[in-house]
Design goal:
The complex is a heterodimer of chains A (about 325) and B (about 180).
Chain A (H helix, E strand, L loop, with lengths): L4 H35 L15 H11 L10 H12 L1 H7 L15 H22 L3 H32 L4 H6 L14 H14 L11 H4 L9 H26 L11 H19 L7 H28 L1
Helix pairs in contact in A: 1-2, 1-4, 1-10, 2-10, 3-5, 3-10, 4-5, 5-6, 6-8, 6-12, 8-10, 8-12, 10-11
Chain B lengths: L7 H24 L22 E3 L16 H5 L5 E10 L3 H4 L6 H9 L5 E12 L8 H5 L5 E3 L14 E3 H14 L1
Antiparallel strand pairs in B: 1-4, 2-3, 3-5
The chains are: A mainly alpha (about 325), B alpha+beta (about 180).
Chain lengths: ~325, ~180
């Protein structure tokens, strides 16, 4: 039997991605809580392991060990499908991200398109979760999530579209190749507005504070995942952190030069930039209060969308010239 | 305060500026030292100002007896009725100088026997019970005590599994404390 090498490559990549997502979940939980602690001038996790390093592991074990509970009136199929639907597309997203010059799961000419298409599935998952839980908080969270995600996808796509026009390709590896080693050769220097728009939309798309309305814990208990327990909640949780990594990775590829960096280009530069961006996202979460829903939509429709359109127009003019 | 109507442009710029101010505030706090205390390993420095449940104060010359004069004012003042004095009455022999009066006749001896009032009765504090389950820490007892025999303890680490554990005999507590401090 002849196994095509492509298949082996993708299988290894998928296994590595699974490990990466799991490990990253642990790292980000720890990072998030430590940063939150330091910003509030307390130590953060401290008791489990040295400097509380084993705290996320303990949390994960707890989540895995918990019983899965379904409300009696919930729709069984949709209820259990939602967390899976939220989690599984992530593997595809990571597959096309170029971590290094050759460190890509799958070279794909429409990598950017694939990422944008499959992140959209998350909205459906949140919607299903909220709807099938038969809980008013879940439903409200789902409604908010849909309104927010759809609204913020438009300026995000427009900002990314401008970049795609500029590079003339949708291949992520190709995009990185077009950017230089030094920070002033990175695309953020040419497209600062697009970066700001992309970054804001990315925070909103991943339901991070200050745009965490779908799961606003002070208003909606826990939003769409109110009824979920154990690993069902764990999958949503992992997915959420994975999406944060995905949007950071895409931002690094589009604007911050990918794996390119002074000295030795390689995946270390990529990871460094990704984690720096994630740190900024965490920093933002612990700085700003949650916006109101009308404010959320106003920012989008009145500011981000026109700005994204203007940016697209300017880019097109520059590309044409 | 005068309301100044801002143009949308002004308010937008101000809003964007305030975003950075916010980031600066949290960023500064991020690098500043922690201000919390790791409880089991460290203790707060102002523990002496903690006002826990009341404690009996020992006499200066005799650390095994309390200053308490058994007047019961504290128990009366307590709004939660959580103080109870267990008092034992003990007849004591009259002091030797009274006993050694040589000119006491037989008649007087008879009257002394028929009237036991003359015998001194000493009231002894057996236990000073404080039911901490009921105590509201108002401090009325400490304020009322005429001889300052009550004080607030700094016993902040108090935990137990049953209600009975919170019914203290303050006299015993005081003695144990004195024993511990004298031996240690």
């Amino acid at each position: 039997m002849n196994i095509p090498p492509e298949l082996i490559h993708i299988s290894i990549a998928l296994a590595a991605i699974a490990a990466f997502i799991g490990l990253n979940g642990l790292v980000l939980v720890y990072l998030e809580r430590k940063v939150a602690g330091f910003i509030q001038r307390r130590p953060g996790p401290y008791e489990v392991g040295p400097w509380g390093l084993l705290q996320p592991v303990a949390d994960a074990v707890k989540l895995v060990g918990k019983q899965l509970v379904r409300p009696k009136v919930a729709d069984p199929w949709l209820y259990w499908a939602a967390p899976l639907l939220s989690f599984t597309p992530i593997f595809l997203l990571f597959l096309v991200i170029p971590f290094g010059p050759t460190l890509t799961g799958m070279e794909f000419n429409y990598g950017l398109l694939l990422i944008l298409a499959f992140t959209g599935l998350n909205v459906l998952a949140l919607c299903l979760a909220g709807w099938s839980s038969a809980n008013k908080y879940s439903l409200l969270g789902a409604a908010r999530s849909v309104a927010q995600s759809i609204a913020y996808e438009i300026p995000l796509l427009l900002a990314v579209l401008a970049i795609a026009f500029q590079f003339g390709t949708l291949n992520l590896t190709e995009m990185v190749h077009q950017q230089g080693q030094w920070p002033w050769q990175w695309n953020i220097m040419f497209q600062p507005l697009a970066f700001v728009i992309y970054f804001l939309c990315a925070i909103a798309e991943t339901n991070r504070a200050p745009f965490d309305l779908p799961e606003a814990e002070s208003e909606l208990t826990a939003g769409f995942h109110t009824e979920y327990s154990g690993m069902a909640f764990g999958l949503f949780f992992l997915a959420e952190y994975a999406y944060i990594i995905v949007v950071s990775c895409v931002a690094v590829v589009l604007f911050l030069g990918g794996w390119q960096g002074p000295g030795a280009p390689g995946f270390w530069w990529f990871l460094l930039k990704v984690y720096a961006l994630i740190l900024v996202i965490i920093w933002i979460r612990w700085t700003y209060p949650r916006v109101r829903f009308d404010q959320l939509l106003n920012i989008n429709w009145k500011w981000l969308l026109p700005l994204a359109l203007v940016n697209l127009l300017l880019t097109l003019i520059f590309v044409k010239i | 305060m005068t309301m100044i109507k801002k143009t949308p442009k002004q308010s937008t710029l101000q809003g964007i500026k305030s975003l950075f101010v916010g980031l600066k505030v949290t960023g500064r706090n991020f690098v500043m030292p922690q201000i919390t205390t790791h409880y089991p390993r460290k203790e707060v420095s102002n523990l002496a100002t903690y006002r826990g449940h009341v404690d009996l104060v020992p006499k200066e010359d005799d650390p095994m007896t309390s200053k308490c004069i058994l007047c019961g004012q504290c128990a009366k003042a307590c709004p939660s009725n959580c103080i109870e004095l267990v008092i034992r009455k003990e007849e004591v022999e009259p002091p030797p100088d009274e006993e050694a009066q040589p000119d006491s006749g037989s008649k007087e001896e008879a009257t002394a026997k028929s009237a036991p009032k003359k015998k001194k009765v000493k009231r002894i504090l057996d236990a000073f019970m404080l039911n901490y389950n009921l105590c509201s820490l108002c401090g009325q007892c400490v304020q009322t005590c005429p001889v300052d025999s009550l004080e607030f303890s700094t016993n902040s680490y108090l935990a137990g599994f049953t209600r009975e554990e919170f019914i203290f005999d303050l006299l015993e507590r005081m003695r144990n404390k004195q024993k511990a401090s004298s031996s240690g």
